[in-house]
Amino acid sequence: MMETPDTAAEAFKLLLRGLDTVQCAYYLHAPAGQGFDFERLGVEKEILRQSKGKDPKLVRLGDVEFLLQRYGSSSGYPLVLDNRDMSIQCGELNSPSFFITYRSEALWRDGLERLHERFLDWAHALGFEQYKREGLSRVDFAFDYHLPTVDFDEESFVSLAGSDSKHRRDRKLRGVAFGQSDVRLRIYDKVAEIAEASQKVWFFDLWGRKEDVWRIEWQVRKEVLRRFGLRTVSDLAEGQGDVLRYLASEHDTLRVPSSDPNHSRWPLHPLWVDLQGQIAMLPAQGVYRVIDPQAGIRERLMRLAIGIHGTLKQVAALHSLQQGDGEAASKHEALTRLEQLLAQVHDPHTWRGDVQKRMDQIRLGAW
User: Fold this and answer.
1) Number of structural domains, the chain?
2) Is residue 162 part of a domain?
3) Domain range holding 193?
4) Do 241 and 316 share a domain, yes or no?
5) 124-128 long-range contacts, Cβ below 8 Å, gap at least 24?
6) Span 16-37, pLDDT tens digits
7) One domain for residues 22 and 133
8) Is residue 56 part of a domain?
9) 4 — pLDDT class (breaks 50, 70, 90)
10) What is the dihedral of CA 37, 42, 47, 52, to 10 degrees?
11) Alpha-carbon gap, residue 201 to 220, rounded angstroms
């Protein structure tokens, strides 16, 4: 039987809120003779890879110890360095040169801003220089509630996500999830997850209890963070309430089912009312959306590319028929033929003026 809102409100309590995982790109460069020896580390990684053992190698870079892994990253970084606080993917020729995943325990213990400053202090001490501000790639926002009674399931949620899933064990609901890409919401039994997977028993001390704790967690990636102006660590510290207000009010809500066929008109569950109240106290800049002018340009360029690609196929077909050999012209052949045709119609005297006129029209909104 579902509890009434008043009784349910007495049954839960927020125990902890914070960041559980943060991924951030750093743009660093070291002048000659500074930084650390990427080539030497690459050789040591290759020796590890070819050896029969599976253990990483302990290395000391500056005043910090890391485990050098025998593998590179799936995203193309040749080196992976791990310690308790972070996992570093890096490469001398990569841009960004460093990609950091700050670990859960370090975030709850020290906070993102301190970890960020510590990383930059370490990098500067080695001789690296930051030539561009860091860029957030993923942030996991977590709210841990004491929740003795779970009176909802996946049908109680209204979400903009296109997919959902649920996890049950011994016929008991252990969690639900919504979304897969830019935004993913999970509500799950954190105590069970610790026992079955993560083994993060240090949460028990932070909560002051060892049972009936459920986590509400949003995993948010770069595109959504940027919509709310959250590009750097300081942006996140000053404005995380903006994106969370959107997530908990528009993207996902937990409702108390009623007879109304429109689920979005169901009343908010008391747990969600409390969550929204907690989010209202977080730092925010009042940003509803940040409009990126470059996004429109990128979209327009892609549309043009799609159109030109279709035109290029027409050029290839006509050129092939003109050649009369029955073979379909390649993209390279079609581009070559198109360049020849463009050379016949191009007027260098009017080009600059025509381009400038179109730039002005686009800049002033006359798309």
Assistant:
1) 2
2) yes
3) 5-280
4) no
5) 125/62, 125/63, 126/30, 126/34, 126/35, 126/36, 126/61, 126/62, 127/30, 127/31, 127/33, 127/34, 127/35, 128/28, 128/29, 128/30, 128/34, 128/35
6) 999 999 999 999 999 988 999 9
7) yes
8) yes
9) very low
10) 130
11) 25
**pLDDT for 140-158, tens place per residue?**
999 999 999 999 999 999 9
Confidence of residue 2 (pLDDT cuts 50, 70, 90): very low
> CA angle 287-291-293, nearest 5°?
155
Is the per-residue pLDDT at 180 higher than 80?
yes
Tokens of 198: 């993560």
Q: Which residue in this structure is represented by tokens 């997850």?
A: 193
3-class SS of residue 80:
strand
For the whole model, what pTM was predicted? 0.76
Alpha carbon separation from 221 to 86, 197, 231, 233, 254 (Å, rounded): 18, 23, 11, 14, 22
pLDDT tens per residue, range 322-363: 988 888 999 999 999 999 999 999 998 899 888 888 887 676
pLDDT of residue 339: 92
CB 123 within 8 A of CB 218: no
Does 224 lie in the same domain as 146?
yes
163-188 exposure pattern, b = at least 16 Cβ within 10 A, e = fewer: eeeeeeeeeebbbbbbbeeebbbbbb
Do residue 138 and residue 273 come from a single domain? yes
Q: Give every CB contact of residue 192 below 8 A, 6+ residues apart in sequence.
A: 169, 174
Residue 183 three-state SS:
strand
Q: What is the dihedral of CA 219, 221, 226, 230, to 10 degrees?
A: 50
- Within this chain, do residues 218 and 302 fall inside the same structural domain, yes or no? no
Is residue 96 predicted with pLDDT exceeding 80? yes
**For residue 288, is it within any domain?**
no
| Domain termination site, one of 280, 313, 335 | 280
